[in-house]
Amino acid sequence: MFDFPEQLSFEITEPIDKAVEWMLLNWGLLFDFIQGFVLTVFNVVEAGLNIIPWWLMILGVFVAGVKLYNWKTGAILSLMLFLIGLFGLWELMIYTLVIVIVAVLVSLLIGIPFGILMAKSDIAKRIMLPILDGMQTMPSFVYLLPAVMFFGLGKVAALIATTTYAIPPLIRLTYLGISNVDKEVIEAGKSFGSTARQMLVKIEFPQALSSIMTGVNQTTMMAMAMVVISSMIGAEGIGQEVLVAIRRMEVGKGFQSGIAIVFLAIILDRLLQGTASRLKKGSE
Fold first, then answer.
1. 3-class state of residue 127 by DSSP
2. Helix or strand or coil: residue 72?
């Protein structure tokens, strides 16, 4: 009487599995194109970061910290980056940085147009909001399965899983930023005869820029959080060191790698927050 009746059981696993098989058979060219595009962007970013000397990168973080905050913040952020090198994790840090940068770049290409679309269309908003709710509450490990199914093990699958996990905040905050632009400013633009494109590019987007930058910051932090998880499907980087430490029960190695990820996340967070703050002041 108190147990749920077994005859009412229903599963959606079989139709999902059949849909995945159908997509693999019929959408092979699309997956090949996505794989090639992501690999190209990955290789370009990796090559760009690898030609920067380590000392120049630390100096660049120091200068950026001084410009955005003060010399103390610049010194602390550059010291954190220097410590990652002292831990012997510089090359793995570069690889992690490449994954995060590419995931954020792909998120920008997809997330900002979707956010604008949601702000302009009630139908798009009604469709996208429950999808974003689902994406943000879905356990992060679930993203690994479709990525591996469609792209196999390796960095492309890791990038797709990381991007899918990290993109919702950027879409939401782009939508909120565009939606909350001052109505009087929009009316002023209309009274001067601005077209829809001019309104978006010259009025709405600049007004929403600080909100969009906050979305970029959150997307970056979520991509950093996915670094360790994506190492389970072949992504190299500091996350791989954490995974190895867990398997071998090496507490010190795991702690050192974890600290390096925290340092890298703090550096990216402070630099992006400082940039967002500057943009906000500039738009006021």
1. helix
2. helix
d(CA 63, CA 21): 51
pTM equals 0.84
Summarize pLDDT for 6-33 with one digit per residue, the tens. Answer: 777 777 788 888 888 888 888 888 888 8
Nearest partner of 259 among 246, 276, 280, 241, judged by Cα: 241
Measured in degrees and rounded to the nearest 5, phi and psi for residue 2 equal: -90, -15
DSSP 237: S
Cα end-to-end span (Å), the chain: 64
3-state helix, strand, coil in the chain (%, to 5): 85, 0, 15
Helices 28-50, 155-166: inter-axial angle, 10-degree rounding: 90
Residue 2 and residue 175: Cα distance in Å, rounded?
45
Distance, in Å, from the CA atom of 283 to the CA atom of 211, rounded to the nearest integer, reads 11
Rounded Cα gap, residues 284 and 274, in angstroms: 16
Q: How confident is the model at residue 75 (pLDDT cuts 50, 70, 90)?
A: very high
- What torsion, rounded to 10 degrees, do the Cα atoms 196, 123, 113, 46 define? 180
**Distance of alpha carbon 75 from alpha carbon 210, whole angstroms:** 26
Angle, helix 251-283 to helix 238-248, in steps of 10 degrees: 150
pLDDT over 70 at 284, yes or no? no
The distance from CA 127 to its chain's CA centroid, rounded to whole angstroms, is 22
Per-residue b or e along 143-167, where b marks 16 or more CB atoms closer than 10 Å to that residue's CB = bbebbbebbeebbbbbbbbbbbbbb
CB atoms within 10 A of CB 214: 22
